Amino acid sequence: YALRASLNRCSGDIEKSRITCEEGLVENDFSTEIHRQLALIYLLEGDYLKAYEEAFTADSNATYMAQDYMDNSGYAPQLDNTIYLCATLCKKNNLSGTTNSVYIDQILEYYSSFNPSKQVSAILNGEKTIEEVLTEGVCDLA
Asked: How many CB atoms lie within 10 A of CB 69?
């Protein structure tokens, strides 16, 4: 599901990508990558708070799998870059009001020495749009 969602997003079919994610979450709500793909969809739509919530869920699921099942497969540079970008965009736009938005400052503190990918830096520096990064070239944040 995550791979299909990514392929659909990269080809510009955002709605098909969303449907694929929703179908995948019915099968496995703990999928780190499906939640991350949803975060990318919300970023493309400009809904940074929903993107943050999905990235937060992806990160929480990765932590749960690592702590309870000794499975670190959910951790990847893409996840770090996704949650960092989402939290930063929420902070820059003064967005809050969701269950997990109270953790934005803590997340940014945790990532204070983080070196974001070239793609994330380009978005935050205004050199590229989210659309350019997520639908062209590498089509991802890392």
From this structure: 10
